């Protein structure tokens, strides 16, 4: 992808988000763009940063650490870990990321808390919820969400910011909205239950369901392909 293409695709993603927010009668700054840069080279991230993008999502720990080293000079960059998280990778995530969206069990939460360096602020955490049980293997079930949230709220090095989901693909707007509406309602319930937690984030909405997600209150939409172009799937 050329520089001009990245600049155009980022501008187009921003316009799409702005149009969706306006159609939903929400404020222009009510949701932000998370640029999902997995499998993309560090110089593309640098270029997106030069175009004003600050928040980037990565799925693979080792790959992300290499890019972070290369991009250590970029001021104000915010790294989100959004991929499946195994126990043996929690230390690297606790030490090198600002956010984690994929916490779905106590054990992972406790390890992230214990491994978060004192010199850094608390790790910003979203709980990944399994909103389409048949198809997805990761994510906490709705009926176990409150007890996981309770565990995270009690951990001092973590800040419970909200919920994340990756719904199964759906063909119609109504079918896309249903699981996202459930996620929004689950966040509202947690806000009542844990008024002390800064529960302000709904990480939902990708290339195919961004408009549905914005209608249902998404505050952070995760776009990869739409910004950086198709991934070379042979790499993974
Ligand atoms: C890859 C990924 C995205 C972005 O997907 P695209 O189809 O490239 O827009 C968003 N969220 C998560 C959790 C991902 O793994």
- Poorly predicted sequence stretches spanning 5 or more consecutive residues: none
Indicate how many domains the architecture comprises: 1
Proportion of β residues? 15-25%
Secondary structure class reads: alpha/beta
Distance between the termini: 19 Å
CATH architectural designation: Alpha-Beta Barrel
CATH class: Alpha Beta
Sequence of strands across the biggest β-sheet: 7-6-5-4-3-2-1-8
Shape: globular
What is the CATH fold-level name? TIM Barrel
Q: Using DSSP, what is the number of strands?
A: 8
Question: Order of helices and strands, N to C?
Answer: HEHEHEHEHEHEHEHEH
Helix content: 40-55%
Describe the 3D structure.
This is Pyridoxal phosphate homeostasis protein. InterPro entries: Ala_racemase_N, PLP-binding_barrel, PyrdxlP_homeostasis. This protein has 236 residues and is α/β, with parallel strands linked by helices. It has one domain (3-231): Alanine racemase (TIM Barrel). It has nine helices and eight strands. It has helices spanning 3-23, 42-50, 61-70, 90-96, 106-115, 142-153, 173-193, 210-215, 225-228; strands spanning 32-36, 55-58, 78-81, 99-103, 123-128, 158-164, 201-203, 220-223. The chain has an eight-stranded parallel sheet with strand order 7-6-5-4-3-2-1-8. Helix 4 (90-96) links the parallel strand 3 and strand 4. Helix 4 crosses helix 5. The protein starts with a helix and ends in an 8-residue tail after the last helix. Bound molecules: pyridoxal-5'-phosphate. Pyridoxal-5'-phosphate is lined by residues 36, 38, 59, 82-83, 166, 206-207, 222-226.
